[in-house]
Design brief:
This is Aminotransferase. The protein is 30% helix and 26% strand. By secondary structure, it is of the alpha+beta class.
Amino acid sequence: MSSRQAPAEEAVQPPALTIDALGKKCPIPIIMLAERINEVPLNAVVSVLADDPAAFTDVPAWCRLKSHRHVASHELPEGGWAIHVRRNY
């Protein structure tokens, strides 16, 4: 699976919160994100670290359903992705 990048102006903001869901099977990464996204201010970025292939597509789909923004997904050197989500509300 390839890395998906958003425009550079969105990708440069460092995450306000990182959720380590490495080793967890879906839907756990999404549940962890849903439980914690309100901990960050509006327009802040949350990074979800996940290595379950389902999370690569399910987290962006959750963003569309919940009106948050999938900013980018970056491959991690040790495997998996850092999936960046911007809190919209």
